[in-house]
Specification:
The protein has 226 residues and is an alpha/beta fold.
């Protein structure tokens, strides 16, 4: 993997520092990729990729790691990102595919798919947490990349908002689990509903807390209520 020279990025360069340093090295456009829903026991894994325009045209007010934004701000930032991005894409992986192929394999493959779907071919790729091989361009996996690189932060917002909207729709079909509130992550209330009603069709049966309920109660599956 090729990384920008340490001296190319100032400590005070801010969220756009990596993209600007890579552009100076002739490696633009720079794409970022991130996922939402990795830790959830229900619902899809959603992966997004994004390339922001150079300069002020690509700057997004309040852009940050999606987990650090309130839901209203995150929605507003999402709308700005999809307008200001030079290219963006989303891949939605259903729960049964996560179960069948495994979380990490699914995560990396979905990042590869999201990057391949971009309308622009990146010159460099920044990914949050995990390296992604086979892209045909150099890249760098970054620890907490959604807090240090704008393109990854943009991808994190797209993935998070897309997934939250999906989980809110799933709440309409399976309201007993209150997916609209916790978005499929494990909370005491979610686990209580899971223990009481068994897993829905969108629960990940490979996750320990869901598998335990299936083992104790048998393969209970609720039908949609609406």
């Amino acid at each position: 993997m090729i990384a920008p020279r340490p001296s190319a990025i100032r400590r005070d360069a801010g969220l756009y520092g990596y993209e600007r340093a890579l552009a100076r090295l002739g490696l633009a456009p720079v794409a970022g990729a991130d996922e939402a829903g990795r830790g959830a026991c229900a619902g899809p894994l959603v992966v997004a990729a994004a390339i922001l325009h150079d300069g002020r045209r690509g700057e997004v007010r309040d852009l940050a790691d999606s987990k650090l934004l309130t839901p209203p701000v995150r929605e507003r930032v999402y709308e700005s990102v999809v307008v200001r991005a030079a290219a963006w894409s989303v891949v939605v992986v259903p729960a049964d595919e996560v179960d069948r192929r495994g979380l990490h394999v699914t995560n990396v493959e979905a990042m590869r798919r999201a990057l391949a779907r971009l309308d622009l071919t990146p010159g460099y790729v920044l990914t949050d947490g995990f390296p992604v091989a086979g892209l045909g361009v150099p890249g760098l996996a970054m620890w907490k990349g959604d807090r240090v690189a704008a393109c990854i932060a943009a991808a994190s917002v797209i993935a998070k908002v897309t997934r939250d909207r999906i989980m809110t729709q799933m709440h309409d079909h399976w309201p007993r689990y209150d997916f609209a509130a916790h978005k499929g992550y494990v909370t005491p209330e979610h686990q209580e509903a899971l223990n009481r009603y068994g897993p829905s069709p969108v629960h990940r049966r490979s996750y320990v807390n869901v598998a335990r309920v299936v083992g104790e109660n048998g393969p209970v599956v609720l039908e949609e209520t609406g």
